[in-house]
Amino acid sequence: MRRAVIAFTAFLGGLVILLTSSATAWAEGEGLRGTLQSQGQPVQGVKITVVTEADAPIGEAKSDAEGKWEIPVPKAATYKVTLDQATLPAGVALKFKDRTSLTLQVFEGSKRNVLFPLVPAGAAQGGADQGGAASSADESTFWDEFAQLAFEGLNLGLVIALGAMGISLIFGTTGLTNFAHGELLTVGAFIAYVFNTTFGLHLLLAAPLAVIVAGIFGYGQERFFWGPLRRRKSGLIAMMIISIGVAIFLRYLLLFLFGGENVPYRQYVAQDGFQIGPISTTPKSLVAMGIEILVLILVGSALLFTRLGKATRAVSDNPALAASSGINVDRIVRIVWTMGAAVAGLAGVLLGTTQILNYQMGQQVLLLMFAGVTLGGLGTAFGALVGSLVVGVFVQVSTLWIPPELKTVGALAVLIIVLLLRPQGILGRRERIG
After folding, report:
1. CB count, 10 Å around CB of 233?
2. Counting CB atoms within 10 angstroms of each CB, which of 141, 146, 218, 354 has the fewest?
3. What pTM, to 2 d.p., does this model score?
4. Same domain, yes or no, for 262 and 325?
């Protein structure tokens, strides 16, 4: 019952954060906007035009230095948005050459996001010209796009899993639903950025140093903040609310220190893409996925086969019984916090290599991490892994049928459906009552 109450409260809190963070996406008046990126880097100077269904001109714009563009529209209606391929810079092309125009509906009071996927030149895919060949090409294009999105979803799911595993272990050992965990990803990414740009260290050296510092930061949080609160018998709901305050503090501290602009690392910013069958990827994406899989295997093996892992599982199952059997519970909790923060920092660094760094990057994946943890089973590290992979793949693949701005909502819908059928999550255990 206790876990059910905490899970429901965490879900409501996450929903509140989602709604408040999305509030900036709404403004007075209607419009169309988007961000053009290729291999995680902004594409500047691309011309976008908007016309009505009757081809009456509405406006045009060019993407700025951050790849962003925006065109206001006079009212809620359906509009056709066209990207001028001739204005794309050398080496960049539309992923699907036959989709230069999109027809989208703009609702009252909203600004609709528009997605034009860009890839390195040569990796683009085109359609057929006529008849049955066109139908066959459309089907082929659909499955090619499905494979690409599933691959991107797997990549996203692995990043989510790194963060979600820390959330799950901390919850399992302390009962704390930590809404500041997303900021640990951001902190790790920006620590690496400081080492990389301010101190001039190569990213290959800056990244492990950032992971170590992130782990020390996690240990300090538990040693000097969360531990004293727990010893003072602070309630779990109160601590959860405090974690929201900590998240806001860290987020705006990063905004104060680094500003609101998107910033990149010095190395591995832009790489030439290559094809693996229908999938377009880059060397850094494959290396990042390899590191993520390796770390997840190491953490899972440590939990199963080491004395520390067995002690962690014992504390998660029953802290009082673990303490009575001679396990130092406070020490185990500090180690869990250290490792959870270090792994989250690594996730932030890897996420920063595939997209531009921003002070909100951790917040943007926080709800997905909670969805992965809850879907897999609260307090189970392997459940967090499975749930995160399911969430990551579904979030990306769902954009085949729903607008990209609604993909997070789709993940929450799957979460609700699964929990209705299996309340304890995929790998969770039913609680014994009485």
Report:
1. 6
2. 146
3. 0.71
4. yes
